[in-house]
Design brief:
By secondary structure, the chain is of the alpha+beta class. About 55% of the residues lie in helices and about 35% in strands. The protein has a two-stranded antiparallel sheet. Helix 1 packs antiparallel against helix 2 (about 50-74).
Amino acid sequence: MKGLIAIGIVLALIGLAAIVQPMFTTSQTKDVAKVGDLKLQANEETTHVIPPFVGEGVFVLGLVVIGAGVFVRR
């Protein structure tokens, strides 16, 4: 079950990344007004926070899936 182990590794890495970097910022450019050739734009930044239990849960789930892949393989 190489696929199951690979999925577990990916989940564990995503969970570890969420634990290490729980906040990230995205930016979006919106058109505010447009008059002829003149265009006013606003850049809006939004900060997103990943709750700690989500990152830890995904990490543990990845480890469980890796364990299941190793168990099924034998």
